[in-house]
Amino acid sequence: VGASPLPVHPCGPPSLPIPPPRWDTAGQERFKCIASTYYRGAQAIVIVFDVNDVASLEHTRQWLADALKENDPSNVILFLVGSKKDLSTPAQYSLMEKDALKVAQEMQAEYWAVSSLTGENVRDFFFRVAALTFESSVLAELERSSARKIGDTVREYPQPAPRGCPPLLSPTTH
Question: Which residue ranges form the domains of the chain, and what is each CATH number?
Answer without folding.
Answer: 22-142 (3.40.50.300)
